Amino acid sequence: PSMIFWGPPGSGKTTLARIIARHTKADFFQLNAVSSGVKDVRAVIERAEANRKHLRKRTILFIDEIHRFNKAQQDALLHSVEDGVITLIGATTENPSFEVISPLLSRCRLYVLEALTNEHLNRIIEHTLTADVLLSKQSITVTDRDYLILLSGGDARMMLNGLETAISLSKPAPEGKRIIGKKQIEEAFQRKYVKYDKGGEEHYNQI
Questions:
Q1: What are phi and psi of 88, to 5 degrees?
Q2: What pTM did the predictor assign?
């Protein structure tokens, strides 16, 4: 079925969409609502119609930040979603009840993704250091994982980008080891304090 993923940044919405596409062997198209319009949507729909008619292949259209699509752009998706020409997967950080038009929302299943816990993020760090093609060949120790997680605000993508930058900025010890501590992490994030939202509540949400 078509579906909407609602969750905080870095909680795995895009990753889930790609996993679904891979397991279903579907033709996968990704659009960002900020930079895409009705023309882009119609181009994917045309390809999806050809896939279904000639190849009997499913097409998944993943729209990141779907809440940024206006009503006309969302309307352009309706018939294709209803007829099963495309399987829509929308990702949003905003409540879809307010940002996605009712006819489209009623044709999708809504899945709420919760923020990743410190345990999840620690497992991601460990997996990255041991399974990544390049990093697994190096001797890397992250001595202050909690600080790395804190600065990332629970966003796995931001955390991994910060870790990658910290590693690139670090100097290997004589024996070839790289120690990633608070100093390298701060330098990578180019700040010393966690982000604050306009209401000043973000600090308490991250503690």
A1: -90, 130
A2: 0.79
d(CA 82, CA 76): 11
Let me know if 61 is exposed, middle or buried by CB neighbors in 10 A (0-12, 13-18, 19+).
buried
> For the chain, what is the HEC assignment?
CCEEEECCCCCCHHHHHHHHHHHHCCEEEEEECCCCCHHHHHHHHHHHHHHHHHHCCCEEEEEECHHHCCHHHHHHHHHHHHHCCCEEEEEECCCHHHHCCHHHHCCCEEEECCCCCHHHHHHHHHHHHHHCCCHHHCEEEECCHHHHHHHHCCCHHHHHHHHHHHHHHCCCCCCCEEEECHHHHHHHHCCCCCCCCCCCCHHHHCC
Q: What is the pLDDT of residues 68-126, one digit of tens each?
A: 999 989 999 999 999 999 999 999 999 999 999 999 999 999 999 998 999 999 999 99
State the residue for tokens 């045309």: 46
Which range among 68-77, 81-90, 132-141, 171-180 shows the weakest confidence by mean pLDDT?
171-180
